[in-house]
């Protein structure tokens, strides 16, 4: 946290935001996309008998944790692009930083996620750095934590992202 | 079903390398699979002209999925990832041959009898180090143990 940060952003640090539940259940078929994209043949996710023996039934690849809270890009009634990790996009807009990348990601994995689960989450802004310049441009780093639960209230995972919002060096701030 | 147990693991042990030739399809497939529609993962002009990167590049959740695949290829299906942290030092682009390499950094059996392995993993493209990852992974302490059976206070990732 730095003294030059606008007060309304400082006020958000540590405050849970966007506490919502997914509007669709966890889908086994969508999990296959991740397995196919990474050519992951783990029988835990392909063989019902192995899943039954080891985990009491099918579970989803653990790295898909965030997927179940990532909205479809559009849904009826949406008047803008639906995005995951809304706090990240809020910071870009509020700090006037048009570009952003992620630099670090942590996943802490608790109860397995299963097909049919409905996942809920909330996002917490943990910190925002002072101005920094990298090879991409000038901006700020921020850390956002996300806690995920299933429909029974079981903790299924905690995730942390470090993002870097920036303006390319050759651009001039408005 | 192959099972790697903790008595087969020693500190300093190297994991087999995994090499994959990345194409634009690799990047787009991974972004689609993780429902990540940000254009730098599918739109060359956006990536190069807006983001200033050399091409579209692998997205974060897909990299996590590649780490998962690399780790469980080694552990077998009884291996259960408790925690992983990775830093993206440089991007992975179409045309890159990404190579995963890993080393065991520690082993322990916790207070409730769960076996844990610490791993350091890198993703490199030639001499370019793209990602570093540390992982804490539960593996069986013997052939009948199953880390997936651990719940509540018996699971300390």
**pLDDT below 50 for ≥5 consecutive residues: which ranges of chain A?**
none
> What fraction, in percent, of the residue positions of chain A are helical?
10-25%
β-strand percent of chain A reads: 25-35%
Distance between termini of chain A? Answer: 24 Å
List how many beta strands of chain A DSSP finds: 6
- Spatial order of the strands forming the largest sheet of chain B: 1-3-4-5-2
CATH superfamily heading of the domain at 6-22 and 64-154 in chain B: Hotdog Thioesterase
CATH class label of chain A? Alpha Beta
At CATH level 2, the architecture of chain A is Roll
The tally of beta strands of chain B, per DSSP, is: 5
SSE series of chain B: EHHHEEEE
Biggest interface reads: A-B, 44 and 44 residues
Number of helices of chain A: 5
Shape of chain A: elongated
In CATH, the architecture of the domain at 6-22 and 64-154 in chain B is: Roll
Question: How would you characterize this protein structure?
Answer:
The complex is a heterodimer of chains A (about 170) and B (about 160). Chain A is α+β, with helices and mostly antiparallel strands and about 170 residues long. Chain A has one domain: Roll (Thiol Ester Dehydrase, Chain A), CATH 3.10.129.10. Chain A has 5 helices and 6 strands. Chain A is elongated. Chain B is an alpha+beta fold. The longest helix of chain B has 16 residues, at about 60-75. The interface of A and B includes residues 50, 54 and 84 of A. Strand 2 of chain A pairs antiparallel with strand 2 of chain B, so a sheet runs across the interface.
Q: Which secondary structure elements does this structure contain, and how are they paired or packed?
A:
The complex is a heterodimer of chains A (174) and B (157).
Chain A: H1 7-10, E1 16-21, H2 28-37, H3 43-46, H4 48-55, H5 86-95, E2 99-109, E3 120-128, E4 132-133, E5 137-149, E6 155-168
Chain B: E1 14-21, H1 24-33, H2 44-51, H3 60-75, E2 80-88, E3 97-109, E4 115-125, E5 128-139
Antiparallel strand pairs in B: 1-3, 2-5, 3-4, 4-5
């Amino acid at each position: 946290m730095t003294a030059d940060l606008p007060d309304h952003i400082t006020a958000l640090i540590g405050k849970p935001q966007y506490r919502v539940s997914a509007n669709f259940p966890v889908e086994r078929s969508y999990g296959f996309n991740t397995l196919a994209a990474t050519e992951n043949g783990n029988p835990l996710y392909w063989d019902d008998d192995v899943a039954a023996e080891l985990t009491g039934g099918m579970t989803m690849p653990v790295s898909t944790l965030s997927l179940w809270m990532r909205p479809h890009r559009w849904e009826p009634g949406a008047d803008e692009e639906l995005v995951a990790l809304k706090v990240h996009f809020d910071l870009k807009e509020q700090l006037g930083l048009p570009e952003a990348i992620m630099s670090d990601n942590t996943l802490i994995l608790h109860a397995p996620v299963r097909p049919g689960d409905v996942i809920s989450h909330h996002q917490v802004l943990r910190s925002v750095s002072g101005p920094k310049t990298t090879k991409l441009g000038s901006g700020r780093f921020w850390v956002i934590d996300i806690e995920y639960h299933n429909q029974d209230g079981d903790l299924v995972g905690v995730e942390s992202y470090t993002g870097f919002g920036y303006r390319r060096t050759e651009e001039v701030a408005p | 079903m192959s099972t790697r147990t903790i008595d087969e693991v020693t500190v300093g042990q190297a994991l087999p390398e995994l090499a994959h030739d990345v194409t634009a399809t690799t990047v787009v497939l991974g972004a689609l699979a993780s429902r990540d529609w940000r254009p730098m993962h599918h739109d060359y002009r956006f990536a190069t002209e807006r983001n200033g990167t050399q091409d579209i590049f692998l997205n974060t959740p897909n990299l996590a999925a590649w780490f998962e695949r690399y780790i469980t290829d080694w552990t077998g299906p009884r291996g259960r990832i408790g925690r992983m942290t990775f830093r993206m030092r440089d991007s992975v682009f179409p045309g890159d041959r990404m190579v995963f390499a890993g080393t065991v950094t520690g082993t322990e059996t916790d207070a409730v009898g769960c076996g844990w392995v610490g791993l350091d993993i890198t993703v490199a493209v030639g001499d370019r180090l793209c990602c570093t990852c540390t992982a804490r992974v539960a593996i069986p302490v013997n052939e009948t143990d199953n880390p997936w059976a651990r719940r509540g206070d018996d699971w300390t990732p």
